[in-house]
Amino acid sequence: MSFDPSLSSISAMYKTSEPVLAADPGAGQSLETRVMNALSNMSAGFEAQRADIANVTANFDVTDVGSAVELQTKLADYGIGVQFVATVARKTVGAVEALLR
């Protein structure tokens, strides 16, 4: 009885991972450029969410439970996203400060 290496979870893991291609977005860009692009994209996304929340708030019907749930969901998603970005920014600053010491 011989061992079939294709059944190994380790070899399966290596077979399923895709290589990084030079044509990937951000390839050849500096880390600073990638970070600035990511921040500008997140800022635009948050602004779109804020405008959507303002629109839902302007058209809010207190007698409609569905609109209340929609508003609550949008506010929660927005808050979680902002908290996530703040946490990542704080941890990034901490990492850069540690590298500069």
From TrEMBL:
Q: Which InterPro entries match?
A: T3SS_SctI-like
**Protein name (database record):** Uncharacterized protein
